[in-house]
Structures are given as C-alpha cells and as structure tokens.
C-alpha cells in the first residue's frame, strides 16, 4: 500500500479546535478501517512565530515537502498584528504554497439540502448545487513583474501590476480542471477576458488546444469572466468545473462559496504538479475561513470546513473515494438531523459546539460504514 504521510499544521485560533475533530476521524480510520495514516505535526503562523521567530520553521517546511498531504488549520490573530511583515502569520501559508508549488486551488461550492433554505438565493436556484472552481494560484497579476508604485516626478505616482501567463501555466491548470471534470459531470467552463486582455486571448487559445489534444471527451465552454459572475448568481447549476486565473478565481470562488452559506462550511484544496516517477502530487488542504479570534477558545467553531477539507484530502491525495463520499454523506446526514453550530443555526434546530458537531459527524461516519 502507498504511504500515507499526513502533516497536521493546526495553526492559531480555531485552527487547532477544528483540527482536533479531524484527529478523531483519523484515529478511528486507523484503528477500525486499517487506513494506516502516519501523522506528523508542526507549527505554523503565530504559534510558530512564538516558538521559532518565523511563520514556519525550516524543519516544518521540510516535513511539509516530504509529506503526502498537509492538513492546515488557520493562522493569525490580534496577538500577532504587529509582528514584522516577513514573519507575519500569513507568511507561513504563502511559503507553503510557494515551496510546494501549489498552482491549482480547488474550491467546491456544494449546497447541502438541509441548508438550501438559508442561502441568500432562492431555494430552487441552489438546491443540489455541486460545482468546483479551479483557480490558478501561483501566477497572474498577483506575481507578474513589473509590480511597483513608480514616482513619476511630477507629483503623480503610478501603481503597476502586471498580468503574466505562460503557455505551460495555462496547460497545467486546465489539465487539472479537465481531469477533475472526468470524475464529475464531465464539463469545464473556462473564464477569462479575451475581449480586453492579451493574457485572456492566450488563456483561451491554450485551454482550447489542451482540450483538443488530450481531453476532447470532456465538454468545454468558454465564458467571459464578468458574464460568468452573472451566471454564477443567476443559474449556478449550469456549471460543473470552472477554470480561471488567479485574480478572477479569487473573486469568483468567493462568490460561489457564498451561494451556499457560512464560512464555517467551506473546504479547499491546493495541488501541485504530479511527480514524474510516482504520479503523486504535493497537496495542502485547508478550510477557507481564518482563525476566527472572536470565537476562538469558546468551543463554538464549526469544524465542518476542516472535516470537509479532510474529505477532499481522502479523495484527491489518497484516492479513497468511498471514504470521502462517506465522510461527506456523514456531514450531510448530521445537517439533515438538524444539528447546527452557531454560525449555521436557525429556528427549531439543535445548537451544538465544535466537539459535539465533530462527535456527531464521526458517529454518522461509523454508522454509514
Ligand atoms: P475569519 O474567517 O477568521 O472570521 C470571519 C468571521 O467568520 C468571524 O466572525 C468568525 O467568527 C466567523 N467564522 C470563521 N470561521 C468560522 C467557523 N469555522 N465557525 C464559526 N464561525 C466562523 O476571518 P477574519 O476575521 O477576517 O480574520 C481573522 C484572522 O484570521 C486574521 O488574523 C486573518 O488574517 C486570519 N485569516 C487567516 C486565514 C488562513 O489561515 N487561511 C484566512 C483568512 C483570515
Ligand atoms: Mg479571496
């Protein structure tokens, strides 16, 4: 059996509280399902800064690079608001993304039937929604050069960011999108702004060529990113996989996420390129939310985003599809039972804390075995 080295980086605030609920699931899987996860642990964010003076230590970075997958909680909090920029908590996450070359960010937007009423959109628009946004994460306007504020010498300054994409970057991100589509509804929608951006013209060409060369069995459609934003709130169920650049993906994935509810529900995955020999990818899984200092320590955090991130880890890093499906079904089942943390609470439901929610999901996961 392939190795299953998992590095846990719980981080700060509610990160460790949510991670504790995943630990219980892993302990059960190891004890009862012979899953053979080998766990290691490290510090990241403010807790790493307190221990080592850096947002992640070199030793923990090395562990992350050697692991088959990294589970990341959340970083940051008021305690570290004034630490130097280079060692601020977020620097730990950015370093991980960069050194692990995690170029593909996967953000699912799933509507759990039990929560279809609490969306800001009409129930029939979101009920049954299951889309996946694949955002390019290591290129584009966030990294392109020149990137500066230039003094024009006449009392004016010029702020400059540059959108840059090379062929290989578009090929590899669209390859991820096409491969994921094959495991889902087999459709990819590529979004760019080829009408006003040269990088958009190239994006469109390369996605089209990649599709023709290797993935012509998948249905491909192109959409201008602004029109895509409209369609996401008008009729999101028309989409399966959406692939887009770093900037548009940042915004479109946040929009898609909010179609279905609370930050406490949203998982994500960030994937690297497959290893030429083994075919395995570097990967990091994390909830979309931050460290929630306002509720940290109160036992009120919703652990579902973290647990659903672990389900993505089972699916994408370990090909444990049955277990991933079962864990996601356990989350849906607990919601069907009316169990809610404060962030998703509504009238007539049963309010619980982090630990009770984790226990309920584990019990359901066991019952579905
Ligand atoms: P946040 O996501 O931590 O919290 C926003 C709001 O959502 C808060 O009211 C919080 O209580 C609530 N919330 C978030 N997750 C929840 C959960 N699982 N259950 C119940 N309620 C939840 O974002 P905010 O407040 O902007 O940032 C707080 C800190 O987290 C900052 O230091 C920020 O830099 C950091 N941060 C870290 C991220 C990461 O580690 N990837 C991402 C975003 C923010
Ligand atoms: Mg964003």
TrEMBL record:
The record marks 142, 193 as: Important for catalysis. One of its GO terms (biological process) is L-leucine biosynthetic process. It is an enzyme of class 1 (oxidoreductase). Its cofactor is Mg(2+); Mn(2+). Its main location: cytoplasm. Mg(2+) binds at residues 226, 250, 254. It is found in: Cytoplasm. GO terms for cellular component: cytosol. NAD(+) binds at residues 77-90, 290-302. SUPFAM superfamilies: Isocitrate/Isopropylmalate dehydrogenase-like. Catalyzes the oxidation of 3-carboxy-2-hydroxy-4-methylpentanoate (3-isopropylmalate) to 3-carboxy-4-methyl-2-oxopentanoate. The product decarboxylates to 4-methyl-2 oxopentanoate. Belongs to the isocitrate and isopropylmalate dehydrogenases family. LeuB type 1 subfamily. Homodimer. This is 3-isopropylmalate dehydrogenase. The gene is leuB.
């Amino acid at each position: 059996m392939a190795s299953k080295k998992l590095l846990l980086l719980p981080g700060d605030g509610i990160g460790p509280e949510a991670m504790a609920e995943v630990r219980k699931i892993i302990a059960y899987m190891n004890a009862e399902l012979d899953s053979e996860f080998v766990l290691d642990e490290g510090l990241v964010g403010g807790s790493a800064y307190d221990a080592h003076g850096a947002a992640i230590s070199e030793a923990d970075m090395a562990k992350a690079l050697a692991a088959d997958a990294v589970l990341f909680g959340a970083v940051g909090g008021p305690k570290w608001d004034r630490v130097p920029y280079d060692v601020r908590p977020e620097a730990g996450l950015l370093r991980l993304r960069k050194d692990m070359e995690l170029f593909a960010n996967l953000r699912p937007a799933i509507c759990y039937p039990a929560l279809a009423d609490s969306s800001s959109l009409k129930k029939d628009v979101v009920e049954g929604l299951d889309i996946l946004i694949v955002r390019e994460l290591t290129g584009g306007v966030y990294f392109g050069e020149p990137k500066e504020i230039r003094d024009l010498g006449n009392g004016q300054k010029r702020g400059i960011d540059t959108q840059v994409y090379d062929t290989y970057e578009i090929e590899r991100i669209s390859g991820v999108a096409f491969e994921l589509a094959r495991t889902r509804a087999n459709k990819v929608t590529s979004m760019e702004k080829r009408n006003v951006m040269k990088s958009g013209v190239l994006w469109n060409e390369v996605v089209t060529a990649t599709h023709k060369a290797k993935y012509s069995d998948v249905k491909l459609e192109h959409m201008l990113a602004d029109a895509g934003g409209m369609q996401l709130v008008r009729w999101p169920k028309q989409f399966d996989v959406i692939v887009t650049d770093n900037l548009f993906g940042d915004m479109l994935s946040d929009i898609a996420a909010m179609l279905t509810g609370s930050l406490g529900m949203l998982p994500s995955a960030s994937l690297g390129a497959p290893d030429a020999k083994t075919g395995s990818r570097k990967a990091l899984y994390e909830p979309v939310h931050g460290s929630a200092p306002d509720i940290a320590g109160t036992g009120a955090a919703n652990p579902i985003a973290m647990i659903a991130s672990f389900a993505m880890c089972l699916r994408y890093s370990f090909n444990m599809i049955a277990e991933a499906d079962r864990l996601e079904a356990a989350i849906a089942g607990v919601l069907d039972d009316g169990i809610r943390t404060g962030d998703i609470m509504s009238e007539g439901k049963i309010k619980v804390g982090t630990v009770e929610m984790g226990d309920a999901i584990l019990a359901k996961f066991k019952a579905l075995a």
